[in-house]
Amino acid sequence: LPIYSGVQKWENNWKLFLELEKKATDPGRFLNRGCNLLIEEKQRAKIQRALSKLEEELKIRIDAWEMEQNKAFMVHGQKFMEFISEQWESFHNEKEREKQERLLKKTRQTEVEMNYGSTPRTPNKR
Prior knowledge:
Layout: H1 3-24, H2 36-69, E1 74-75, E2 78-79, H3 80-116
Antiparallel strand pairs: 1-2
């Protein structure tokens, strides 16, 4: 596996991983019948394993290439391993931001309910 095709494969898997993560937050996915959830979860786990495996393999190959060539291996204007860590960091930061937004929304809702009383929820008639 040459370095450039490995980098391309990592980027493709990263895009797929982000896509599956986005699907995982969609509440409508529980409404479909069949085993789509199971397939998605298996696919996500497989891609996560493939990403970490590719990262390790590419790190070894890139380190060897850098030693051989005496220059840094750059992708998108920065070292590849820095690029990877930056992608993971932005992913985790985005997840944390979404979590904080949900928490803030819940806190605001609780404050409103404390001040004005909660709205009674009547069950839907069938």
